[in-house]
Amino acid sequence: MIDYDTVQSALHTWVSGRTGLTTIWARQNGARPVGDFATLDLRIGGDARDWAVTEDNPTPSAGQEIQHVSKGLRKGVLTVQIFGGAVVGSTQPSALLDNLKASLPLPSVRDALSAAKIGVYGFGQVLDLSAIIQSSDIESRASMEINMNLVSEILEYGTYISIVDATNEIADPDTSVTIDGGV
């Protein structure tokens, strides 16, 4: 399963840190933030590409000597919208989104996204969505989609031994029997 808390935290930190704006998740109940702000809308879906691996449990206990791990990739699209700011210049929403895009190769950004198991592989065009509000003011707005792969992992513990069929009796109670292998 995707660690949504970690993914959302990493994306929020990236956008708010690089734009310098109050950043909220879209479709929340509440008042519009005061001043300039950014919204994030993460959609996850598409074809799942899952595979399973079985490996030794690094901290085994009886009945949990191995771990079965189902891993997969999920496609994600993050829509970032910026509201407010200058109509022209380096603080206009489209410039802030372009700077966000340009920050991806920086080690601090790449490492933080990678630690959250996020792999960004593309950006949509920055769209200027500036509009007239209250019939006289222009609000600068811009939007951009960010395409990414997210890693999903689900873990289940198991054992090497599924069935033991005892056919003889152990006469000496101080004797222990070790069974290796099996499926």
Description:
Helix 1 crosses helix 2 (93-102). A hairpin with a 3-residue loop joins strand 6 and strand 7 (137-139). With 183 residues, the chain is of the alpha+beta class. The chain contains three helices and eight strands, in the order αβββααβββββ. Strands 1, 2, 3, 4, 5 and 8 form a six-stranded mixed sheet that branches. It has a two-stranded antiparallel ribbon with strand order 6-7.
Topology:
Elements (H helix, E strand, L loop, with lengths): L3 H16 L2 E4 L11 E20 L9 E18 L9 H10 L4 H9 L2 E6 L3 E2 L2 E3 L3 E3 L1 E18 L25
Parallel strand pairs: 1-2
Antiparallel strand pairs: 2-3, 3-8, 4-8, 5-8, 6-7
Helix pairs in contact: 1-2
List keywords for this structure.
Alpha-Beta Plaits, alpha+beta, 8 strands, 6-stranded mixed beta sheet, two-stranded antiparallel sheet, 183 residues
Outline of the structure:
The chain has about 180 residues and is an alpha+beta fold. The protein is built from three helices and eight strands.
Estimated structural class: alpha+beta
Alpha-carbon distance between the termini? 27 Å
| Number of distinct beta strands | 8
Q: Can you name the CATH architecture of the domain at 4-44 and 74-143?
A: 2-Layer Sandwich
